Input
Amino acid sequence: MTQNDCFRVLTGRNQRRSLAVRSDMTIWAQPLPADEFLRPLGVILLEHNRQLTISEWLLQHVDHQQLEPLEVNATALLGFLTEDLLLHHKDEEEDLFPMLRHRCKPEDGIEGVLAELNRDHATEGFLVRDIAVDLRKIIEGKKPEATARFFHSLYIFAEGQQRHISWENKTVLPLAHKRLTSQNLGDFGWNMAARRGIDYPGSS
Ligand SMILES: [Fe+2]
Ligand SMILES: [Fe+2]
Output
């Protein structure tokens, strides 16, 4: 059995993705203009779209067992995983989810949704810690400790991201548009900007 065969057994992936993924690297962190934070739910959606693009990019290279693109982009990927994604989780866990918990009605079933999403965040956190160890090795010019395990962790992370984001877009964002007040949205945008060291429009 080849390493590729082993990987397919591990992941259950038999088909290569045909989805076109951007080949340029503008998928990595792009600072947002301050005005975007006036529409915090729009920022969440923008970030979800970028996360989806990155997870698709990861799946493409994992499917093809291509280590080189991951090596070339190791610093950017590490920054995305340990900084951008961390900020996104804080936006949701410290602002969006508590606001929804406060504003939603019993028929919205928000508690069950949030419990599942928080579990996903915890799982992503474990995977990110694991992947980051190998990315730091790569940045030092070394190889991952076990390449098959590295690819497998990236695969589980990227697949999980796609399911998680799709679920948030289908459940959390529509409820947020429906239930959050303009005061909630103002506070949310202000906090998001502050986490990124950006002056909220009109605050200075
Ligand atoms: Fe999330
Ligand atoms: Fe999210």
Q: What stands out?
A: Residues 1-24 have pLDDT under 50 and may be disordered. The pocket of fe (ii) ion (ligand 2) is lined by residues 48, 88, 92, 165, 168 (CB under 6 Å). The radius of gyration is 18 Å. The first helix runs from residue 3 to 11.
